[in-house]
Amino acid sequence: MLLLLGSRCVYQKNKGGLAVLDIKAKNDSFFAKQLWNIHLKFDSFWIWWVDHYYIPHISIWFFDVKKTTSPLWKSIFSLRNKMIEQCRGISAVQQMLSSWHSGSGSFTANAYDLFRYKANHVQWASMVWEQWSLPKHSFSLWLAMLGKLRIRDILQFISIDPLYPLCQNSSESHVHLFFSCSWSSSLWGKARYWLKLHSSMPTLNRAIRVLSNNKKGL
Known about the structure:
Layout: H1 2-5, H2 23-40, H3 45-53, H4 71-87, H5 90-102, H6 107-115, H7 125-128, H8 135-146, H9 174-180, H10 182-195, H11 204-213
C-alpha cells in the first residue's frame, strides 16, 4: 500500500503525508556533508587521501569524474552538479553549504530539509492525526482523504463485483461509501444530530472543515 502511494508517504503530516524517512534525501544530505568536508579539507584520513589521490591540483568544484570512478565518488559529484544547476552557480552553493556548517542547526538536517519532497499544507491534517484517535483509524481516514482506500471501484483489475455489498444499489466508490449510500447518509444525519451540527456534509473535505470549525464545542 505504501509503495503505491509513492512519494506521498515522505511528506510531513501537516502536508498530507506520513512523515516516513526519505531515504534518498537522507543519502544526499550525507553526500553534501562529504562534499563540504572535501572543500574545507577537513582533518580526516579519508579527506586527506581524496585530496592527494583524486584532486591534487584542482578544486573539488571543477573536477570531472571518470568511468572508473567509484559509485560513492560519482554520487557526490552528481549531487554537486545538481546543486550547482539548481542554485545557478558554484558561489551560491558554497554560500548555502557554509550557512549550514556555521548555523545553529545540524548540517545534514538542513540538507535533508532541502532535498526531501515538498508539498503544500493541507487543512485536514490536524483532524486526521488527532491525539485521541487510534492509529488505525487515523491511517484509514488519511487514505480516505487521499481517495486511496482499497474499495471496489479501485480493485476492478482483479475482476471483483463492483456493487457496494451493504446496499447493493451502486458501485462501491469513495463518494457512495461515505455519502451517497442511504445507510451512510442516515448515519451521517444521526451523527450530526448527536453533535448538534446543522451544516451539510456532502464530502469528506466538507465534513473535516465543519468538524474542525466546531472542534472546541465538540
